[in-house]
What does this fold into?
Amino acid sequence: MKYYIKQQVFSWRDRFTVKDEKGKDVYFVEGELFSWGKKIDVADASGNVVLHIKQNLWNWLPNYTLFMHGHEVATVKKELSFLKPRYSIFGPDWEVEGNIWEHDYQIWENDALVATITKEWFTWGDSYELDIEDDSNMLLALGIIITIDCVIAAQQAASSS
It folds into this structure.
């Protein structure tokens, strides 16, 4: 199934809308405006928070924990690498491969494809297509994509200042 993630432009905080293939709003993503470290909530169409992403401070490299229904389900850590960005995912046995700088990558579990992420270019604000193999993995894959996007955006902001 395909989902489309669209960042809202002209917002003081991280805001994304996630739509299904039919254009129906499925999830709403919103970051906290003032907090120590990034904190992002993903709510379903009814407004119930179903995923919480929290940046773990005091780490050498970016490190985020994902919570579903109050339980820790994954930790995403950026690894030290010199040629291309690498991320480790703890919790599920998932790996991220592909061109992360171009937002064109896949999430794998062993030899099985979990999801494919592709950035749509020439759009107003960031837009991504998420092609998920098993819909039960959708929410966790969405959290990982949002986390990687936060890390890349922070690095781009730091390098431009």
Q: What stands out?
A: The mean pLDDT is 86. The first strand starts at residue 2 and ends at 7. The first helix runs from residue 138 to 160. The chain has one helix and twelve strands.
